[in-house]
Write a structure and sequence with these properties.
The chain is α+β, with helices and mostly antiparallel strands. The chain has 12 helices and 12 strands. It folds into 3 domains: 119 residues, MutS, DNA mismatch repair protein, domain I (3-Layer(aba) Sandwich); 59 residues, DNA polymerase, domain 1, CATH 1.10.150.20; 102 residues, Dna Ligase, domain 1 (2-Layer Sandwich), CATH 3.30.1490.100. A hairpin with a 3-residue loop joins strand 10 and strand 11. Helix 4 crosses helix 5. The structure holds a DNA duplex (18 and 18 nucleotides).
DNA sequence: TCTGGGGTCCTAGGACCC
DNA sequence: TCTGGGGTCCTAGGACCC
């Protein structure tokens, strides 16, 4: 029988840091920003010991340091995590019969035909541990959505199975926000329709949902409430659609000339990233956060044939739209890229892989 | 509490064309 | 001046994920 496994490394970033600093084992460890709690930055990952103090991902580093004064705070070292991630994914691909779809640094779907998915999952955990000294949790499902949600019930270091057989019993009374792809905003709009639980979403009339969310998303949310339908793990290599760089400045920028310089510097990095992929630019985006928290985005199409000088010229047109009299806290530049020939049929895995 | 950085996809509305 | 229906492209904004 075909199964979808969802593999998720436990406290991945913190675990990688502890591996190379064994003296940190058992201590509260927080990884975020440049490791300086005095700066504007947030927590990337906290170890379980740090989580016991109420520290969690996305929390401002300053607050985290206040909650867990004893914690060791480390800077983010992306290349190290990327390397560890590659080892993990290679081990997943080495499992017998495994089709692997990577979702991020620390998680992947594994499609496999087996009669005992739990035994397969346990062997997979052992293999990953033996190769990387990292622990993971595994969700087993008959759909991608169920496997993904199952993992949360298996943490840490566990295995949990979620299928059509126990979906209602396990998830029916959960709030819709516990579903993968339903956040606080959609949750609120659903509540306004009288839908609070997963079971209520699963049974909601389609026309009410499509009226609120459109034909595509409306039906998708209902399917989500039912546990999803796709069970296809797609190992087609991921093709990035674009690149972006974003910086929050430690002190707000007020001088327009300085703002322009900062934006052009980000653009330079983004264009280097695009060039590294050997692709062209078909769109530009400029994101501005005026202090304190108002964010605006400007976008522009770019002819596929534009060279770097032309792209920079178009970018200047966007930069010129930044309000000259407002302090800027964050700038972000995004480039949308041409798709390579073999990816233009829309078959590459995206969110549509569901 | 005071909010990072890198991504993806969806929708609405206006411009423009036939 | 009033005016249908359908299509595509562009821009802005929203939402979500890790």
């Amino acid at each position: 029988m075909h199964w979808v496994l969802h593999v998720d490394l436990d406290q991945f970033i913190a675990a990688v840091e502890v591996l190379r600093r064994p003296e940190l084992a058992g201590l509260p460890v927080i990884v975020g920003g440049r490791g300086d709690p005095g700066e504007r930055a947030v927590v990337s990952t906290a170890s379980y010991e740090a989580r016991a103090f109420g520290v969690g991902s996305g929390m401002p580093l300053r607050i985290a340091a206040r909650k867990a004064p004893e914690a060791v705070i480390l800077p983010v070292d992306a290349p190290a995590y990327l390397e560890a991630s590659a080892e993990v994914m290679a081990e997943l691909r080495a499992q017998p019969g495994a089709v692997v779809q990577v979702l991020g640094w620390d998680e992947a779907f594994v499609g496999v035909d087996t009669d005992s998915p739990e035994a397969y999952a346990r062997r997979l955990q052992q293999a990953v541990l033996a190769r990387t000294r990292l622990h993971c949790s595994v969700g087993i499902g008959d759909t991608l959505v169920r496997a993904k949600i199952a993992t949360g019930f298996g943490k840490p270091r566990g295995v949990f199975r979620l299928t059509a057989a126990n979906w209602d019993a396990v998830m029916g009374e959960h709030a819709v926000v516990d579903l993968w792809g339903v956040g606080p905003k959609v949750s609120k709009r659903l509540l306004a329709l009288g839908i609070r639980t997963v079971a209520e979403l699963a049974a909601a009339p389609a026309d009410a949902l499509t009226a609120e969310f459109g034909p595509r998303m409306g039906l998708w949310y209902r399917e989500l409430g039912q546990g999803g339908s796709s069970a296809v793990v797609d190992d087609t290599p991921w093709v990035p659609r674009g690149h972006s760089r974003e910086t929050t400045y430690q002190t707000d920028l007020a001088d327009p000339a300085e703002i322009e310089r900062a934006a052009l510097a980000l653009l330079d990095q983004v264009l280097d990233d695009v060039a590294e992929d050997g692709r062209g630019v078909i769109g530009l985006g400029l994101k501005v956060r005026y202090a304190p928290f108002t964010t605006k985005t400007f976008t522009k199409r770019i002819p596929e044939t534009a060279d770097r000088a032309v792209i920079v010229e178009r970018a200047r047109e966007l930069i010129a739209r930044i309000a000259p009299d407002r302090a800027v806290r964050l700038l972000g530049v995004r480039a949308e890229m041409t798709l390579p020939e073999d990816a233009r049929d829309g078959r590459t895995p995206t969110r549509g892989a569901w």
